Fold each of these.
Amino acid sequence: MLTDRQCFFCATLMYGVSLVYSVFLWRKGFRKDDRINYVLLLAGFTMHTVAMFMRGFSFNRCPVNNLFEATMFVNWSAVGAYLILGLWPKIRSLGAFASPIFVFLGIYALMPGLDHHDADGEMTKNGIVSLHAVLILISYAGFGLCAVASCMYLLQERNLKKHNIFAVTSVLPPIQRLESVAGKLLVASLILLTGGLSLAPMLVGDKDGLIFYQDAKILWSMLVWAAYAGIVLSRWKWRFGGKRLAWCLIGGFVFLILTFSGTNLMSDLH
């Protein structure tokens, strides 16, 4: 029997195969529906799901207790969200743009030293703590898909601006649909992040002399929330969209993914 880490490694390998196949789709100009890529990601997701269940049942808790599990959960949520969106053929090409993120997160999660366990597992015995973590991690996956849709938007916008035949012959979604998908994912992810963060004061309070609102992870989370809330407000009030919206969503996710681990390590509560 494979262990949970070995199953996750197999899933990451499938995401890697998807990435290699995506290169061929890029070279061919996305002139056909990439169902093969969808099947590859579905196969990887199946192994990924097995790894998640094995990890959860082995410790009898939701698998979000350390950086390995948190990254694995974010990756699993993002792939699952893509597979749902990919049921619509015009959105399916998202997978070619998202597969590099899936591979990167998989390789990062498998790095040594991230999969450590707390002595008594108290952090995840509380169901509210698990809900808090799950809501926030799923929101991060949503922000990742926003960034992927934004990358596709910029590519299509560039091809249309240069009157490139690629914009007509490819099966990539039109830029209006990409902007709409990114906007809806943004709102849904912000709602999930808000729900997850709203549980924080109930869970920690003042613990062992630590004030939760002075914690590095809490301050970072408030910054991330404020940034995405500002984008949503600008989009609603000032019709903020197009290339500016796309670059903001890409920049926001790059910041999130580069600083997530560091703020975890700086946090006494996390």
Amino acid sequence: MLIYNTTFHVEGENNLSPFLTYMRDVYVPAAIRDGLLQNPRFVRLLTEVGDNLFGYALMCEVEDVKILKKWKLETGRTLESNFHQQFGEKVLMFSTSMKDVTEKVVGSE
């Protein structure tokens, strides 16, 4: 199981409400619609990301790299393009793929 994380940096308080509405009504439902990404968690970053910037992240689980590549081709590209059309440079986004290695460092006594 992999974790696919997309981090968002929202510029200014006046962009927060439109961003949060878009994420709730458009982005997250579209991201998980085909079932390839699962268990979405949308979180607010508590660390400061810059002056007048607000950080959020969407974390989803995905079975493996092959399925993630399929999602990126079939859904991710369009979703990202639509997002950029909606927000331009008012919201920056970047994605990271991660592998959970908890079992290798926790409980291995």
Amino acid sequence: MKKNELSVEPKYYAMEIVKAVIIGLVISLVLVLGAAFIIKTFNIDTGAMPVINQIIRTVSILVACLLSLRRPGNGWLRGMIAGLVYSIFAYIVFSLLGGGFDFDITLLNNTVIGMAAGLASGIISMLIRRN
């Protein structure tokens, strides 16, 4: 294998997914802090919070996939897995920060949207890498 070729071994795919999840969580934490500052400063209605949270999650997954999914093949699957794992870890992190774990329809909603965002982000990532 040449020095600059990317390997397609499963362990490298797994490392890309782990990297995407970590990047996504860091981006989410930064964006949530920024959103909280903006909401507090400009007295934005709390009814907008679910929409803002979904936008933050989707942007975090997109940027994480764009930065970490570099190897060819199955971008949609790796993106979807990254979105699923990100959703699980984001739930745990933000529940710990919020002080409680609530198992309700919002968890299912966040997981499905995270997987869909990951799927789309993985496809976009592969299309960008190909060109």
